[in-house]
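Sequence in, structure out. First:
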Amino acid sequence: MINIALCFENDAELSFMRMELGKCFDRRGIDYNINCYHNTAELQRGIRRRLPNLFFYDIMGEYGLIRMAALSLKQMNPKLVSVIFHNRNYIKPPNDAFLEPLYTIPSKSTKQLWSYALLAYEATLDKENAFSYYKRPFYLHTPYDSIKYFVSEGRRTHIVCTDEKQNHAFYKKLNDVETLVSSGQRMFLRIHQSYLINAKYVAAYNRSHVLLTTGEHLPISKYEYYKEVCNCIAEKKTRCINENNSSLR
């Protein structure tokens, strides 16, 4: 069961959110509970009974009071995930970092709402040791230690593991996958627009390729990616002697 809190002053906005989120989670068979609040006073009374896991709110509502309430909620539930709508007038204060993970929905459309609702939901799953993703009709959980890399192909991302039985494709952008796996002590590195690798499996690298301990050669497409590999694993991994040689040894 995931507990969701909505806090918007506008009734129409609140009704739209509740209806669309309900349809989103119903379609995927996810157990949920949604509580709606118009202001921080209602929110404070409601959370005494149940703390939310997922919080959708107007970050500029009540002249910033709803945002302050979100910060308080984060203190009570460190795993809280926040979702807001984009507002061009919002000036991001430094302590917004305390709200992370914080997702900003570009537009108030059903498609955008569903996309970010599921992304935020996946961020609330127990993912200390496993990557969770939706492959109809279930959520699957793959241990991070067994993931070699993610590769993007069109609208789908493939997860490639040491155990081929755990290899699957699912509908999610690689950028979103990168956001989900980049917290905590895990180290996944972007080496290409289409590749996100687990640094644990890097055996060697040069300017153009990475060699994994399992034998695969994967391309590094940009110098910025190469520098990131250098910065993150140069002291732990063996670097290829010949930078200009495309074959890694």
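Second:
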Amino acid sequence: MLILKNCKFIPFLTEGTDLVEGDVLVNGDKIEKIAPLGTDFGVDAEVMDLAGKTLMPGLIDLHMHLFYENINALMNTLPAPQCAINELRYAQEMLNDGYTTIRDVGDYHCRAAMYLRNMINSGKVQGPRITTSGPIISSNWTKLDTIDTFTVGKDGFRDTCRKNFADGADFIKLYGSGSLLLPSNEPGYPLLEPEEIEASVLAAKRNSSYVSVHAHGKTAIDMCVKAGVHTIEHASMISEETLKYIDEHSPDTALVYTMFAIDEILEEPDTYNGKRMWALWDTIKSSLKNAYDNHKNILIGWGTDVGLDLFKTDPMREFRLRKEYLDMTNEDILKQATINSAKIIYKDNEIGSIKEGKLADFVVVDGNPVEDLSVMYKIPAHVIKGGEIIR
């Protein structure tokens, strides 16, 4: 058992209580009791005094690639052992920085993320909770053969989805448009046909799961939304027409922003990709801001989508970028990194907020991030996952 004493709470991330400060009893991997300051729980437990620091739910990253150490890992095939080591390193780095749950949205063909997920779940190694798609399913128009499984036609997509699930995937990831990192494909150009997307969505539903899709351009995004895709990754140039369609016809569709990945490219304006990004930046920023400002019922999730080497230089950068580029409120940013992302992956009954009966995943921050978001610009003071003090 673990008792967390002298905690400050964030009301909109703490459920089932009106307390703004108090003590928390953790029993095993779950929150057993949230109680007033100084409560005698009458149990023999390890005590951690937070001394007035803020207790938040653990952070959630819905868009990252565990194998992705740097650009070399993306563009060149790694031996399976090296891939596995990269993934363990990245997973443990993210846990150290407060991400107690991550979603791997495209893995190598050796499916190291699935094995790592299973090892973590069995307690053999330490790491965050992992949800993984396995390799991305794409058409033969794309070039990332390191992490893509190529197929064609609705039968091909259906059968490949089934194979991914049989191999242990938690959900399906499709490559729906050109990429900002691939010179051979224009970022907005659709790469899939509607019937291929629809077949994938149906195959996922048959497995009680969902489809996520990489999509930058408005035509590709609109096609994916109308085919029933659950999460639009990046959503860079989503149109007002598609946003209205989501509001009226597709309330389960969510958007996963990845500002860190965008900023990475903006920082190299003289490169091929940098020039393309700067040419599109005003459109991207206005599209993402419009979705946030004017379509409040659409859930926006949290993603980073950068390599480990870059992530380590500034692991909390996504917080700052959403504030600076999109002028999001502190409350909305904190929700996106926690409860909103938990809802998007249908795990809000387990994680994403502090509530009796939920998993004891926490970060402890020094200050009040609701009043001053810069509190989140540095890694948390402490991280706890499933009742285990990570640091």
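Remark: The chain has 13 helices and 18 strands.
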